[in-house]
Amino acid sequence: MSAPLLTREDLRDLPLEELKELQKIINSAVDDYYKLQVEKALAEAQQVADKYGVDVADVISGLQKSETKKQARATRAKKAPKIKYQHPYNRSLSWTGRGRTPTWIEDLLEGGMTMDELRVE
């Protein structure tokens, strides 16, 4: 049977040293519990691997490789598209050629310029 749990009120009344000691005990208990769960999972994985006639280490390394590939794909940064068109007088205005045509390009085209004149070399 488990001991009665301490409430927040109970903990507020304890001195700092006792709280730190409780924290160490709880952290140790959590670590022990986690290690036990890992051992159980490994034992079950071993049984499944034996059932299929494979080595559990191969299964685990296969999972790790798969996860590493997923992480590599997820973290790969997309390159910004290259600028294809730029305003001839205001270099801060540019366009990649994707999406809707910016108003400044439409205005320049109406004014007689061509897309070739706006193209970045």
Automatic annotation (TrEMBL):
Organism name: Falsigemmobacter faecalis
Record-annotated DNA-binding protein H-NS-like C-terminal domain positions: 75-120
Localization in the cell: Cytoplasm, Nucleoid
Domain of life of the source: Bacteria
Annotated protein name in UniProt: H-NS histone family protein
GO cellular component, one term: protein-DNA complex
Family: Belongs to the histone-like protein H-NS family.
Alphabetic keyword roster: Cytoplasm, DNA-binding
PANTHER family: DNA-BINDING PROTEIN STPA, PTHR38097
Record-linked SUPFAM superfamilies: H-NS histone-like proteins
An annotated Gene Ontology molecular function: minor groove of adenine-thymine-rich DNA binding
Pfam families, per the entry: Histone_HNS
